[in-house]
């Protein structure tokens, strides 16, 4: 009933986007969508995608988000217009003026219909929502092979790299066990971020190890306070990192809290028995070199763990899950089958899992391609690509661990190799190149995977992840004239990049955060303190069924 009601409202209001004849046509994620008219029908969408179009795209078509009308109450002078012929909006891609006043987009209109203090000509470029990376670790404790602990790069560094790469929002983690209460843990994390970030930001609450008696109600309170996502480990990951895994009974209890408070479980899912058995086996056999990582963190582990945790979610009505860093075909298939049963499961993969496989571990400094669980086989890569295309995989993140090459390569064994990678800067341009240019994905599907879906799943939409009136003016302008071969020396993240030598067919020439130009023509024009913390609330429809 809700979806039908929203669809009727959408059909009533979307035509206000522009006064053009509506044209129905197929909605192929690999189609050329440059000439799609806003409001065009997508009659061949699968059922869950039709529900998504109705329930999640609708708010941007309602009157206060109508593209030819300013935001209600916005009477101030338009500060800036981005004029482009490939503007990616929720209703389609086309030639529009994106009008910005203050921190908000106030209109998306026919070119020349509005006036502003400044007009930026983005003809021939791609105008898209700022990227959203839902999985980063800044100023994060990093275990060293000698037992000591270091820190990853702080938000000051990573957020500037993100802006250079067209990403305007990042979501990190706050460890609940780092303070007596969840509230205090969040306050500690805010000390690391507030005033130190050039992007907007938020936190997942991370739960590790044994569950203290008073923690579940605190999690419920935090969800209601704007922290609706909770990270859970089903494994300790390595023998030397005991204390991460949450027992299954405790996970069951957390799921009940999530369901009651309309939160989302974000899961690092591996079968701990399988993983630890394989560590013991390979250590006994003397095969401890890190290039054997895929044998330890294997496809069977992902299959068993994914299905077990999803089955538990089915037994707690109202539980929705986001499976982090999906790395195997078995994980993709487990998500696909659960979604077909109507379970609200969403999938994330990482760009290195899509573009590298376990053979790359044997390259010089092969550790730079690794993050946990592990790289897998070429057929697993193929399954990840298929999943991003058919909607099983909803987001492409980084699992950002920004550190030096020396730190990244200091471990050389299966139980001491550093995870994560430096990837937040090239992510948007690299995925545009690999998806749109090289594989024929539509611009809309690409934008979904690097921005819009993360906004929807993480409770930021339509404030983030959309070029529409009423949304924050977070914009990335990709310019094919800035095509380049990726080199670490040209980036702003670390002294290495796992993407060295990859061709980027476009690169950001402008990044805007809430109306402020942060990057323009190769110059960083923002400030590290420009980022703001984001409270979030996940749409009920997205928790009730797999809408994306």
Q: Mind sketching the topology for me?
A:
Layout: H1 2-13, H2 47-55, E1 80-89, E2 92-101, E3 104-109, E4 118-121, E5 126-129, E6 131-133, E7 136-137, E8 141-143, E9 149-151, H3 155-164, E10 167-175, H4 182-193, E11 200-207, H5 215-224, E12 229-233, H6 248-261, E13 264-268, H7 272-285, H8 293-296, H9 299-315, E14 320-323, H10 329-340, E15 345-350, H11 351-355, H12 378-390, E16 395-397, E17 400-401, H13 405-408, H14 427-439, H15 443-457, E18 475-479, E19 484-485, E20 503-504, E21 507-513, E22 516-520, E23 523-524, H16 540-544
Parallel strand pairs: 1-4, 6-10, 7-17, 10-11, 11-12, 12-13, 13-14, 14-15, 15-16
Antiparallel strand pairs: 1-2, 2-3, 5-18, 8-9, 18-21, 19-20, 21-22, 22-23
Helix pairs in contact: 1-2, 5-6, 9-10, 10-12
Radius of gyration: 22 Å
Task: Describe the largest sheet.
Answer: 8 strands, parallel
Structural class: alpha/beta
Number of helices: 16
CATH class value of the largest domain: Alpha Beta
Number of domains: 2
> What is the CA–CA distance across the termini?
18 Å
**CATH level-four homologous superfamily name of the largest domain:** Metal-dependent hydrolases
CATH fold call of the largest domain: TIM Barrel
For the largest beta sheet, what order do the strands appear in spatially? 6-10-11-12-13-14-15-16
For the secondary structure, the number of strands is: 23
Helix fraction by DSSP (H/I, runs of at least 4) = 25-40%
Q: Report the CATH architecture of the largest domain.
A: Alpha-Beta Barrel
Beta-strand percent range: 15-25%
Shape: globular
Q: Uncertain regions: pLDDT < 50 for 5+ in a row?
A: 1-69
What is the mean predicted local confidence, pLDDT? 90
